[in-house]
Specification:
By secondary structure, the chain is mainly alpha-helical. The protein has 16 helices and four strands.
Amino acid sequence: MDEEHIALYPFASEVSAYVESLGVSLESLLNSPAFRRSRARGMERVMQSIEGEIEKSLTKDESWLLSETLSYPFAQILVACIDDQLFTKRYALKEAEAALKWLEKESTDFLLEFGEDFGIQAEAEELHFSMHFADYIRFSSSIREPIWKLTNRQLKSGMVVVTKKDFVRLLQEAIKERIEKSFPAPKIPSEISSFCAPYVAEIKDHFEIHKKKFGATDFGAVEPELFPPCISHALANVQGGVNLAHSMRFAMTSFLLSVGMSVDEILNLFNVSPDFDAETTLYQIEHIAGATGNIYKPPACDTMRTYGNCIGRDRLCEKINHPLAYYEKKLYLKNREKEKGKEKQEEEERGKEKQEEKRKGKTRRKVKGKEKA
C-alpha cells in the first residue's frame, strides 16, 4: 500500500507498521508543535463525524500525507477519552462511510488486496466478485435490507456472487467493525486524559448542541415504561411487525427523537417492519429530526385524536394535552416517589441510629452502676 492509500485508509493493518517507521512517539504527537496540524486534523475528523460526514481530500504533498496519517491515531485517542459506546459507534460508522467513497473509485486488484486485509476470500469475475459465504454472512448480517439475505443471493460452490458496488459496501461494514473493536482501548493514562481534556470538552459540548438541534430534549435516560399509551401501542405494533399508518409513524418517530433516542436507535426499531427499507427509513427519520433545517415536534393530543391515533387513553391522559407532557409528568411522579423513598430510608436509618445510641447509653449506665456498687 502506497503512502496515499495509507493516508486514505489509516485503519488498514500495515498502517501501524508505517506509523512506527516514522519514529513519532506518542508524547511528540500530543505535545510537539511539529504535529499541530495532525492534532487539528484529528480533532476535525471527530467533529465532522458529529456533523455528518468526514471529508477527505487527496493532496499530493508530504505535509498532507503526514498530517492525514497521524490525525487518525489522535482522533482515536480523543474518542477513547470520550468513552461513550454510542459516540464510538457513530465515529466508526462515519469513518467507514468516508472510506466507502474512495473505495468505489479503486481498481479491482486493489479491492481484492484490501479485502484480504480483513480476511475476505474473494475473486474477480468480469464485472462481479465472488466471496466465501462465511465472509458474506459475517459482514452482511448488520445490513437490514432483504436483498442482503443469503437466500436472495446467487451461491456457487460456497461462493456468493456480488457486484463491485455490493463488495465495496461489505468492505464498509468490515471497516466499521474493525474500528469499533479497537475500542474500548486500555484505560487512558491520566496524563493523556489531562492533555485531551480541552478537546474532549469541546467535542462533548458540540455533540450536545447537535442532539438538541436535531430535536432531542434533555429528559435524561429514555424510559419506555413511562411512554403515553398511544406511543407504547405504536411501539408494540412496530416490534410485532405491523405496518403503522404514516401519521402514527411520524408521531412515534418525532416523539422518540424528542425524548432523546438517536436516529440509529429508532432505525433499529423499524427493522422488523414488513416493508422495511433501511435507506428510505433512515432518510425519513433524519428528515423528521431536522436534517433539512426544519425540526418536527410530535403532534398534540387533539391531532392524534383527529387521525385516530389516540389509543389506550388513561386517567393521566385526561389531564394533559400533549404526549411529551404525559412523559414529563410520568417522569416527575417517578422521581418524586424515588425521593420519598429515599427520605423514608434516611429517616429509618436515623431512627436506627437513635435506637442504637439509646442502647449504648443504657449499657454505659449499667456499667457505671456496677462500678459504683
